[in-house]
Write a structure and sequence with these properties.
single chain, 194 residues, alpha+beta, 3-stranded antiparallel sheet, elongated
Amino acid sequence: MADSLTLSAHKLGGPQGVGALVMAEGREAVRILHGAGQERGLRAGTENVPGITGFGAAAVCAARDLPAAQAHAAWRDAAEAVVKAAGATIIGEGAERLPNTLFMAVSDWESPQQLITLDLMGLMVSAGSACSSGKTKPSRAIVATGRIDMATGGIRISGGWGTVEDDWKRFAAAWVEAYAKQRQRAAERLKADA
């Protein structure tokens, strides 16, 4: 059980800039902004009532739609099997994961090149979480698994509210095709250098 939990409304379809803090019994928050005494002295400033209302509405909708979101797990798993058969390593395989997210890596194709290639094929993926966007450092998540050889070759695929099974199939087929071409080019370069 967590001692505290922070939630962002935009992660479940609510407005940006609104969040919630859940504290376990016996835990206390320490304020970082000083001023008026809102929230029993823990927060200064006027509440964003429309944003809070939007967060509440988004939470109700997310809870209502949660069973349907589980369909992504089967679609993701099918795509996962295809890319794994082509040589990808699934990061977090066997662990409890979000049903709409796949994190995978290879040691012989850098993340930025994968992103560019897939983008040109009309697919949007990332090299990690949004907070690491634009960074070219090795993935800390992959390094933590002990697969340092793959730390610069990871990509994350996330399905959204409008994602359907065919989107996952399209991604898997495109990645396999692109990876095969990448490996062929690498083999040709090695042959030319020999």
